[in-house]
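[retry 2/3] Diguanylate cyclase (GGDEF) domain-containing protein: previous attempt timed out, resubmitting with same input.
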Amino acid sequence: MEANLLRRLYAHTREWGRAQRGIELLELAGEALREFGQIDTGCFIYRKRGIETDFVPQPPAAFAPWGAFADDGQFVSGLQSLFETSLTLDVPTDRWLLAEDIPNPSLAELVHGYGLLEFGVWPIYSREEVRGALLVARTRAATRVTAEMSNALVDACAAQVSLALDMIMALRIAEHASQRDLLTGAWNRRGMESRVARLVNHHRSRLHDKEHLILGLVDVDNFKEINDTYGHPTGDRVLRNIVRAISTCVEDGGLIGRLGGDEFIIFCQSKVHWHDFMLQIQNVVGNRANGLYAVSVGGAEWGVDGTTFEACYAKADERLYANKRARKEAAVHR
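[retry 2/3] Diguanylate cyclase (GGDEF) domain-containing protein: success.
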């Protein structure tokens, strides 16, 4: 009977591979613990690592609480504070404890009043480091599983969660890499298009800030001549330098992309009109070029020049070529 419980748990974990996000995985794991282990209370604590933040672990946060811990913001807040000092709460791990025997006074005080009979902490690992913990508790005695099987079930669940979280992160890293331009580190077209809607929604939620949402284009003048005269390594350095220059003008949350060749796209919020913003970028790039190259620019404002990516891109492209023609004519008459 008990061996069958483990088989059923492992069969259940096959569903975990379909989880797209960590929270989905943790909710599935919580369901399994309730169903197979008669574990009526618990939650997960985890230090997320964001791709956008260079994988720096974030402060511990509680996820997918159930039973006595569900919908209790005060408990979750207190638990997260305890995990700031120790991801294993300074208690023996990988086994059950009677609630009255919890050795950490702060933890014992936090869980007091929840009617817990027993309590346990199982570490969650990522790349051989403790990144969080599975907290399990019972308010009623288990009737279908022995103490030994109860330990084995939580052991298996914690190990599978650790493995699955690493798999989700690996998939996210691969997806992230597929949306980056390898030469410059800017987003490629796929990466830009997948993030446009998010930035538009963010802008709509902050209309009171009176900021402009700008789609800008930057094109390197006579880039083929740079490659032909100085070689492709120099051309590559030019492209990287342009991205670095643009990034000094774009606020956090803005997008910088390379659409291919020598064309770059910017999608960001700005306190100034698109024309002034793109002129600033043109000047910053020019000031860093040491006379080797220059760029033409164009822009459009979302909601004014269009309400779709395609419409704003077309308008910005039209203005870019108008800027390029005007600068060529000015050079002829100089």
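[retry 2/3] Diguanylate cyclase (GGDEF) domain-containing protein: The first helix runs from residue 2 to 13.
[retry 2/3] clearing retry counter.
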